[in-house]
From TrEMBL:
It comes from Oryzihumus leptocrescens. Belongs to the 4-toluene sulfonate uptake permease (TSUP) (TC 2.A.102) family. InterPro entries: TM_pro_TauE-like, TSUP. This is Probable membrane transporter protein. The chain crosses the membrane at residues 79-98, 104-122, 134-153, 159-178, 190-214, 234-259. It comes from the Bacteria.
Length: 260
């Protein structure tokens, strides 16, 4: 496959920077990065696009996970089991995804996103402070169950995984948005590793552009994580609503045939 032009490469790098920032704050950077790769490589196989996106994303999630850990100190007793089970779920999802038509998921994803967005808007205090809904091993079980389900989804399809992790941690477990974002980045890092473990042996990664985008994604993620920590849970909530709204418009357009 021929290398993209300098202009296309610069636009892809800008997309990686923007995606890294969004992903670090609340998840959903794929809303920017995946379409950019599709436009930049119109003749690439879908697996190449997905694999290259994961390479770029893992650079960002590595940086944001470290930044959140150093500045927010999330409880690893929840974050690590959730990430571990999400890793296993993503492995299974990546295998499952090759046998399921992804177009069948769009209507279901749209319904879930509308429900998530409406629930967040109708509960203005949601995620403003940590009020855990489970205690002890019940808390870990709920976190790992959510991690597994979202991990399978990420391996099989992927769009909005980080945002779904954040919502599960806020809506199901009762974390504030900032704490949820910190834990979500760790879980999303694990699902990216799992997906690459499937894609790299297939030779699907476009390494040159993936590493260029990854470097920009890393910088964006570092800046995004610092912004989220400095601005707090209220800021993260606003970005979360905007990103979910963007997903609804994008996927809703696909379902209604407004664009492919």
């Amino acid at each position: 496959m021929s290398d993209p032009s300098l202009q296309t490469t610069l636009l892809l790098m800008l997309a990686g920077l923007t995606a890294g920032w969004i992903d670090a704050v609340v998840g959903g950077g794929g809303l920017v990065q995946l379409p950019a790769l599709v436009l930049g490589f119109p003749h690439a196989a879908p697996v190449q696009i997905l694999a290259t996106n994961k390479l770029g994303s893992i650079c960002g999630t590595s940086a944001s996970s470290l930044t959140y850990y150093r500045r927010v100190r999330p409880d690893l007793r929840t974050a690590l089991p959730m990430a571990g089970v999400a890793f296993l779920g993503s492995l299974g999802g990546a295998v499952l995804g090759s046998h399921i038509p992804k177009s069948a998921f769009n209507p279901l994803i749209l319904v879930v996103l509308v429900a998530v967005g409406a629930y967040t808007l109708l509960k203005p205090d949601l995620g403003s402070a940590t009020q855990l809904r489970f205690a002890g091993h019940h808390h870990v079980i709920a976190a790992t169950a959510a991690g597994f389900v979202i991990g399978v989804y990420d391996g099989a399809l992927g769009p909005g995984t980080g945002s779904f992790f954040v919502f599960a941690l806020v809506g199901l477990l009762g974390y504030a948005f900032l704490q949820a974002s910190a834990k979500a980045r760790m879980a999303n890092w694990a699902t990216n590793v799992a997906a690459l473990a499937v894609f790299i042996p297939q030779g699907a990664v476009m390494w040159r552009i993936g590493l260029l985008m990854g470097g920009c994604n890393l910088l964006g993620a570092y800046l995004g994580a610092r912004t989220a920590v400095a601005r707090g849970a209220g800021f993260v909530r606003v970005v979360f609503v905007l990103v979910v709204g963007g997903f609804i418009i994008r996927i809703g357009g696909v379902v209604l045939g407004a664009w492919s």
